[in-house]
């Protein structure tokens, strides 16, 4: 998947690709900015397919590409394209070179498919993506029992500082912890435990979405502490 593209020189592009075999890599698409270039179409963000690369002494170069999806549905809608840019920027930030990133690549692909289909609201797609990519990166919160006493409870609060749920008896550990409804707890558990292919097939109430958005924003700020440029675009919608 092409995560981003940057012009280089007069006619070339530098692409950031997320791959199954090599994790996140940079590759040069020589002549990709020429109108008649065979690499013109495949050097656009969201392009997904098989890329043939040549490994030079210090970098990769793209020989050819067989694109199975350009996600053209995203490009025709401003809101969808902004969300797509955010998902790609997030993936580029959190993935690494020479690392097994197959699950995150799969998540990104399924997320863009969900945006293109628009079967569930974009705010929910973003929430699912954010929680799942943190889980796949080894930064999942503990949402199946109290993070302090390891007991189950009928009432939970979400504690960013503690890294997961706090039961009634342990809520004093974090007075800022967010009270969650039972449906919100179940939703968190579903997102973290399910396979990527089965994630984008449910809806939630406005209250659940509100609660989980508060959890996700606070959690990302605490554990990533990174401002994505594309969030400014999302904020302008």
Describe the secondary-structure layout.
Layout: E1 2-8, E2 12-19, E3 23-29, E4 48-55, E5 60-69, H1 72-75, H2 78-94, H3 102-117, H4 122-136, E6 156-159, E7 164-166, E8 178-180, H5 182-193, H6 206-223, H7 230-235
Parallel strand pairs: 3-5
Antiparallel strand pairs: 1-2, 2-3, 4-5, 6-7, 6-8
Helix pairs in contact: 2-3, 2-4, 3-4, 4-6, 5-6
Detailed description of the structure:
There is one protein chain. With 237 residues, the chain is an alpha+beta fold. It has helices spanning 72-75, 78-94, 102-117, 122-136, 182-193, 206-223, 230-235, and strands at residues 2-8, 12-19, 23-29, 48-55, 60-69, 156-159, 164-166, 178-180. Strands 1-2-3-5-4 form a five-stranded mixed sheet. Helix 2 runs parallel beside helix 4. The longest helix is centred in the C-terminal third of the chain and has 18 residues, at 206-223. The protein is elongated, with a radius of gyration of 20 Å. The chain starts with a strand and ends with a helix.
